[in-house]
Amino acid sequence: MKKTIALLPGDGVGQEVMRGAVHVLRSIEKRFGHDFDLKEFPIGGTAIDLTGSPLPNDTLRACQNSDAVLLGAVGGPRWDHSKMRPEDGLLQLRKELGVYVNLRPVQSMSALLERSPLKSEIVKDTDLLIVRELTGGIYFGEKKRDVDRAEDALVYHKFEIERTVRRAYEQARKRKGKLTSVDKANVLESSKLWRSTVSELATEYRDVVTEHLLVDHAAMKLILKPAHFDVIVTENMFGDILSDEASVLLGTIGVLPSASLRDDDFGLYEPVHGSAPDISGTDSANPIGMIMSAAMMLKLSFHMHEEYEAVERAVREVLNAGYRTADMRTSRFQSVSTSQLIDQVVYRI
Ligand code: NAI
Ligand code: MG
After folding, report:
1. Is the beta carbon of 69 within 6 A of some atom in ligand 1?
2. Which of 57, 109, 110, 117 falls 20 to 30 Å from 141 in CA-CA distance?
3. Superfamily classification of domain 117-250
4. Which UniProt keywords apply (predicted)?
5. Domain-wise residue ranges, the chain
6. CA-proximal residue: ligand 1, atom 13 (nearest)
7. How far apart are the C-alpha atoms of 140 and 50, rounded to whole Å?
8. Which of 244, 263, 265, 347 is catalytic?
9. Measuring from atom 43 of ligand 1, which residue has the nearest CA?
């Protein structure tokens, strides 16, 4: 299959981990006989330095003309005081591309159990997917500010809830058949609309078990009993907070991938972590979040399931063989560099 993929490495460790995705895609291409057209474009601080804009027109156009986009990370102290912010490039990109739903899988890996701050009996059976509404809610509502009064509007339209919840149900159908919808329906009108919309859709997805949880209860349960969950669907701000909370279950943010999608097969795929300025340039960043983001692209945008499995299996084997970047290291293992870990994954594919 021929596919055009825009690569946006961005800043800091984004550049370092993107090399992992590229090597992995080249090895998948060879093994399965595909033709991936990979081209790099600047975004974020790197793009500000080169062109004066965090999202140059050429980059946006290339993304719009691609089958999928892979992004590393943007930002860093170098641009913290510049007039233009690298992060604005990413927000603008998501909005321009219309990717309204964000998928974040969190699955425990036996090799990482020792790194989790929670007991391994609690985290060992974690296998959940957070489905977060990405382009509505309080982050996009009207804002007002006086000296001693501030206002943020939390607005949801039914169609925004419905299209996100449908995606979540489709995922639940392919997974363990359980959907937990998270809201604050005892207090918020937008949550009442959220809950009634989910209840309506539940009648169309009778093969999936539907459960409603209030967000405060969900926050507790995520730590007390993560294995309770299969698919969690929620609005923008609750999803933002719960997905950071869930990332702690695994003990490092460096392994977590994400996908931002719309109604066609197009997707924007990026690791959950940022540009990690504290370790950038030392060849020590964990490339697994980026590599698994590329794997999600193979599965969700290109429907290449066997290829996805090949990457996932290679990553698991590398961890089981004891290869760890510094963020995954425990006393039993020496750490390896980003490049060494990438080489190991590629070798196994
Ligand atoms: P961060 O995710 O970059 O780093 C948080 C901590 O996790 C740091 O100690 C870092 O060393 C570690 N870490 C992150 N990725 C890692 C990896 N692959 N391997 C090993 N360790 C890793 O978040 P932080 O420090 O809050 O933000 C740094 C910059 O990144 C800021 O400019 C921020 O705006 C930007 N950022 C960008 C994101 C994006 O591009 N999607 C997301 C989050 C932050
Ligand atoms: Mg966040």
Report:
1. no
2. 57
3. Isopropylmalate Dehydrogenase (3.40.718.10)
4. Amino-acid biosynthesis, Branched-chain amino acid biosynthesis, Cytoplasm, Leucine biosynthesis, Magnesium, Manganese, Metal-binding, NAD, Oxidoreductase
5. 1-100+257-349, 117-250
6. 276
7. 30
8. 244
9. 274
- Domain 1-100+257-349: homologous superfamily in CATH: Isopropylmalate Dehydrogenase (3.40.718.10)
Pairing of strands 101-107, 127-133: antiparallel
Q: Which two tokens stand for residue 133?
A: 């509404």
**Is any ligand 1 atom within 6 A of the Cβ of residue 15?**
no
Active-site annotation holds for 67: no
* Residues whose CB falls within 8 Å of the CB of residue 68, separated by 6 or more in sequence, listed in order: 3, 5, 6, 265, 266, 267, 268, 269, 297, 301, 302
What gap in Å lies between CA 23 and CA 25, rounded to an integer?
A: 5
Euclidean distance between CA atoms 29 and 309, whole angstroms? 14
Model confidence over 153-180: pLDDT tens digits? Answer: 999 999 999 999 999 999 999 999 999 9
Quote the CA–CA distance of 17 and 24 in Å, as a whole number: 11
The candidate with the shortest Cα–Cα distance to 212, out of 225, 230, 199, is 199
Q: Is 268 in the pocket of ligand 1 (CB under 6 A)?
A: no
Counting ligands in written order, the one closest to the CA of 134 is: 2
Prediction ipTM score: 0.98
- Span 213-225, average pLDDT: 97
